[in-house]
Design a protein that fits this description.
It comes from Acetobacter orleanensis. By secondary structure, this protein is α+β, with helices and mostly antiparallel strands. The protein is built from eight helices and 24 strands. Strands 7-4-6-5-9-8 form a six-stranded mixed beta sheet. Strands 14-13-15-19-18-16 form a six-stranded mixed beta sheet, with helices on both faces. Strands 20-22-21-23-24 form a five-stranded mixed barrel. Strand 8 and strand 9 form a beta hairpin. The longest helix has 19 residues. The two termini are 37 Å apart.
Length: 402
């Protein structure tokens, strides 16, 4: 039978085969981008602290700085000799005097205590003293390097930058970041039902969905469409897409029907099959083909199956190519349902979770099958269920959050 599933692999074998190609992929070139434009990019190098934070002992609040021993030794209070703000260079504090100080200002030599302005009393003669209790020695002083010392690791290679890293790098005066050049991915939809003039035209939801998933992972995406069942047109589009991008992704056209032409079109371009079909539900038709070191991920046409195959198999490959950790962090939860997998089949089911005192409670989300789209907006995570590990209520299971 054309495109038959005579040599399917199990889930782990498929993941291992993909990982081997990812490790053999050429090293991505790096590029430098302004820090303000680096959100979503993948760091090409480790970034270490240029200086400690804080660089020096600084005041944690607006108030007065003084010698604790000097304030403790007087009942009248200490005379105030001016004020320091952040950015002022400090001069030594004269013995027996206090200094007005603002948040972030450096602590002058001779001061070892800061008290908030509202906790101090300023006399008519210009002396300052605690309104009630004297703070402890060292109070309200942020010590040099208490956040991190010079040379500390701030961002490791392969990190996808977000607003947190922007703040961290900006505080070090870093204005430009070396990042991995994004992987370019072609997403190719196909099928006569996608044509606007088709008698039963269908909207293409898979391409925008896959593009969004890939862009969230940091990839650049180029969309192609072949709204016909013509194998020659499909081959021409696939050839163009593969020539212009690093990874090829198709959606639909990989089952055993007469109009499922993706595999034949790829073979005409010299591609060889890495594996044909995976013993999973949904997503059994998933096929991966290779042209040299480059891969084509042929995803099922059903949107639910396509999304799951992208999450489980495609995204780890793309992340590895960009120098990231391939796997996404999983979280544990307690199941409130039972599920028995089909023999020899790994299942992926959408689940929701609710935060409870004992942790996350995982609940199965009803679904109508591989074509279901709305189930993902009702779910919070994806649960893998291996064939020999049925789910029982009350189990701890690890899930992949969306």
């Amino acid at each position: 039978m054309r495109n038959s599933f005579t040599s399917m692999v199990d889930c782990d074998t498929a993941l291992q085969l993909i990982a081997a190609y990812a490790e053999g992929a050429s090293v991505r070139p790096l590029m430098h981008v302004p820090l303000a434009e680096a959100v979503g990019r993948i760091t090409a190098h480790d970034v270490r602290a240029v200086s400690a934070r804080p660089e020096a002992d600084i005041s944690a609040m607006d108030g007065y700085a003084f010698s604790h021993a000097a304030m403790q030794a007087t009942e009248a209070g200490l005379p105030v000799v001016g004020q320091m703000a952040a950015g002022d260079l400090p001069v030594p504090l004269p013995v027996g005097q206090a200094l007005g100080i603002l948040t972030g200002a450096r602590i002058p030599q001779g001061a070892d205590c800061v008290m908030a302005k509202e906790r101090m009393y300023l006399t008519e003669t210009g002396l300052v003293q605690p309104a009630k209790m004297l703070a402890e020695c060292g109070a309200n002083i942020r010590r040099a390097g208490e956040e991190f010392p010079q040379g500390a690791m701030l961002v490791t290679r392969g990190t996808r930058l977000d607003w947190r890293h922007t703040a961290l790098l900006a505080c070090q005066g870093i204005t430009e970041v070396a990042v991995i050049r994004p992987v370019r991915v072609a997403v190719v939809s196909n099928g006569a039902e996608l044509a606007e003039d088709a008698s039963d035209t269908r909207a293409d939801s898979n391409s925008p969905m896959l593009a969004a998933l890939l862009r969230e992972a940091g990839a650049e995406v180029v969309l192609y469409s072949v709204p016909s069942d013509d194998e020659q047109k499909l081959s021409e589009t696939l050839a163009q897409a593969w020539a212009e991008t690093d990874v090829l992704v198709t959606t639909g056209g990989i089952s055993v029907g007469q109009t499922d032409n993706v595999m034949d079109a790829l073979r005409s371009l010299g591609a060889e099959t890495v594996f044909r079909g995976v013993t999973i539900r949904p997503g059994k038709p998933l096929t991966v083909m290779a042209q040299g070191k480059r891969l084509a991920f042929c995803l099922p046409g059903n949107p639910g199956a396509s999304a799951i195959c992208a999450l489980v198999f495609l995204l780890p490959y793309v992340r590895t190519m960009m120098g990231m950790v391939a796997s996404t962090s999983q979280v544990p939860g307690i199941t409130d349902f039972a599920f028995t997998p089909v023999a020899g089949t790994t299942h992926f089911i959408p689940v929701s979770f609710k935060i409870e005192p004992q942790g996350l409670r995982l609940s199965a989300v009803p679904t109508v099958g591989a074509s279901d789209i709305i189930v993902f907006s009702r779910a919070s995570a994806l649960l893998r269920i291996d064939p020999d590990y049925p789910v029982e209520a009350g189990q701890t299971r690890w899930v992949l959050p969306f």
